[in-house]
Amino acid sequence: MSAQVSESDQIKQFKEFLGTYNKVTENCFMDCVKDFTTREVKPEESNCSESCLQKYLKMTQRISMRFQEYHIQQNEALAAKAGLLGQPR
C-alpha cells in the first residue's frame, strides 16, 4: 500500500511540476516573443526568455528560503511555548 501512496505522490508532484512549467513557459513566451514573421528566434527574444526564467528560478528559491525560515521560527516558538508550559512552578 505504501508503494502505491508513494507512486501516487510522485504522480501528483510530477503533474504539479508540469503545470508550473507550462505556466512559466507561457508567461515568458507571451512576454518575450513578439515577432512571428520569421521562424528564427531573435537574440532579444532569447535573452528575454532566459532572463524571465532566471527571475522565476531566483524568486522560487527566495520564497523557499523564506518559507523554511518561517517554519524554523514557528517551531522554535512552539518549542519555547512547550518548554514554558512543561516547567513546574
Please give the share of residues in helix: over 70%
Query: What is the H/E order?
Result: HH
Distance between the termini: 48 Å
Structural class: mainly alpha
Task: Report the CATH topology name.
Answer: Helix Hairpins
Tell me the number of structural domains.
1
Oligomer: single chain
**How many strand segments?**
0
Q: What is the count of helical runs?
A: 2
The largest β sheet comes out as: none
Give unreliable regions as ranges.
none
CATH architecture: Orthogonal Bundle
Keywords: Chaperone, Disulfide bond, Membrane, Metal-binding, Mitochondrion, Mitochondrion inner membrane, Protein transport, Translocation, Transport, Zinc
Subunit structure: Heterohexamer.
GO molecular function, one term: metal ion binding
Membrane topology: Peripheral membrane protein
Walkthrough of the structure:
It is a peripheral membrane protein. This protein has helices spanning 2-32, 43-86. It is mostly helical and 89 residues long. The longest helix is centred in the last third of the chain and has 44 residues, at 43-86. The termini are far apart.
Key traits:
89 residues, Helix Hairpins, 0% strand, elongated
